[in-house]
Amino acid sequence: METNKRLDLIFFALADSRRRAILEELSEDKKTVSELANNFSLTLGAISKHLSLLQEADLIYKTKQGRQVFCHMNFDIWKEVASYISMQAKFWNNRLDELDGFINKGGRDE
Amino acid sequence: METNKRLDLIFFALADSRRRAILEELSEDKKTVSELANNFSLTLGAISKHLSLLQEADLIYKTKQGRQVFCHMNFDIWKEVASYISMQAKFWNNRLDELDGFINKGGRDE
DNA sequence: TTATTAGTTTCCATAGCTGGAAAGTATAGT
DNA sequence: ACTATACTTTCCAGCTATGGAAACTAATAA
Prior knowledge:
2 copies of one chain form a homodimer. By secondary structure, chain A is an alpha+beta fold.
């Protein structure tokens, strides 16, 4: 898929705090659709749509075990987000070092 | 403003390729609203709304010179985006190094 | 086979985004 | 004072996002 379209999907998926919260749960461990529905007080239908959207954006992937569907974080996709940010960064003058340092110490502000 | 709400605004603003294109223009130099309207073949009204949205997200700021309004990239906001990404990254095992390397060489894939 | 469980998809109502047109505001020019 | 320029805001129409309810599919259990 075209990069611009992929970035549209990725950023749109990230533009919702509930979906970001889902990702944070998944970054710790895989979860079934039902588990996520319970944790976020949404119907199965509603959570299923959020998950499809996250999958469209390649931020997660699913595996099936019997009736259950496990959702997993797709860690590789963050490379694409990082790439976009560094592309923006290349226009900066001396701010790239600042950003690198910031990322390398884990995003903590001083 | 609350961090979650700010991230909503930032990612939503980034979820549109036209707005990302505006940001790329502004990362090179400040531009007036009219210049941007011409470059993107939008009416002044339409572009003005995109710019307000970008300003709400703190991705740009405006300065006035007479009748003209100059739009400037707000480079500092990318720290917040980088922070979110590194927060996600802290859950990864050995993928952080990979991401760091990727960012440090400018987002090029090999 | 029949019933239950786990998800997905469809339908519908509500709400929000987007863009053009047009009206409104503020600054500059004559 | 009057006109033109540079935007912003409002109004309206069309499209999309979201969520619940209900219908539908697939896999397990009895």
